[in-house]
Write a structure and sequence with these properties.
By secondary structure, this protein is mostly helical. It has 2 domains: about 120 residues, no CATH class; about 70 residues, no CATH class. Helices cover about 70% and strands about 0% of the residues. The chain is built from 10 helices and no strands. The longest helix is centred in the C-terminal third of the chain and has 23 residues. It starts with a helix and ends with a helix.
């Protein structure tokens, strides 16, 4: 998987005029963050999943490069005991992209996209594409979703079971109450029904 992801990263860097070796050094840094042993869900596999889902609606994006860069960095900093992960991920993205000589305007767009993953309330089409791709994990098969749920629980190992269940149900209910989980019609048609089923089943399991 890492070889395929490295190829995707270099493909993203090439039109930006980034030196291949410089790009590789930053790629290694990104891999080291996502490869931390405490990452059971928010890992490199999740990045690959989000990038693949972005490809499904790539034609909708106004700035596909910004969306893909944001996907790479959106969970690069992930501490389950922090409420500033999105902000710190955006800061790290800015630092690394500046080091690679990426234009300031693009860096700013990337940072805004990453910050949008905090509340998951998209304000433009690029945010819709990124957030739909990120939430597509809800719309996978029941077996896959169960695996993701277990992985997320492992990341919050330090939270007492009763507290975790309560907070997780609150988060899931916040999505259930939305008129639709997916903003783009393509992702809505493809994932909405299955996502709502998976969320409903997880809530029932947590309540039992």
């Amino acid at each position: 998987m890492t070889d395929a992801l490295e190829a995707k990263w270099q493909e993203l860097m090439r039109p930006l005029g980034v030196d291949q070796e410089d790009a590789f050094q930053v790629y290694k840094k990104i891999v080291s963050y996502y490869g931390q042993s405490k990452r059971h869900y928010h890992n490199l596999a999740h990045v690959g999943f989000v990038l693949d889902r972005i490809d499904e609606v790539a034609h909708l994006a106004e700035n596909l490069t910004a969306v893909k860069l944001a996907a790479w960095f959106h969970d690069v900093v992930y501490n389950t005991q922090s409420k500033k992960n999105e902000e710190r991920s955006a800061e790290l993205a800015c630092r690394y992209l500046q080091r690679l000589g990426v234009e300031d305007e693009l860096i700013e767009q990337v940072a805004e996209l990453i910050l949008a993953t905090k509340q998951h309330l998209p304000e433009n089409v690029d945010q819709q594409v990124l957030l739909d791709a990120d939430l597509a994990t809800f719309g996978v098969s029941s077996e896959q979703h169960a695996g993701y749920s277990q992985a997320i629980r492992k990341e919050f190992w330090w939270v007492p079971e009763a507290v975790y269940k309560q907070r997780r149900v609150e988060i899931l209910n916040s999505f259930v109450k939305r008129e639709r989980l997916y903003s783009t019609d393509i992702m809505f048609d493809r994932y909405e029904e299955n996502a709502r089923h998976n969320i409903s089943m997880e809530i029932k399991a947590l309540a039992s």
